[in-house]
Fold this protein.
Amino acid sequence: MCGAPEQTQELPPGTDLGKHTVLAGTVLIGTGRTAGEPLGGAFVRLLDGTGEFTAEVVSSASGQFRFFAAPGTWTIRALHHSGTGERSLTADAPGLFPADVTVS
């Protein structure tokens, strides 16, 4: 069983966005009739600025995921049997950083 907390958009109690850096978003379907809809069950990986693997969670049934990270440059990669997708972002300070990823 995975040790990651349930993946929701709601942050855990006590999360202080003045101190914590949170990367959160939704994995989305990129093509076809259902393009733009959430995609659950994707493996979502967090890679640091050098491309090194840092963490992984599975997106919720509604496609949601989140990571607590240090400020810096990050890549979020989503892998699903229907395809892959990734996006890079810079989280230059504590706060909540939206990070939707489209899989195609």
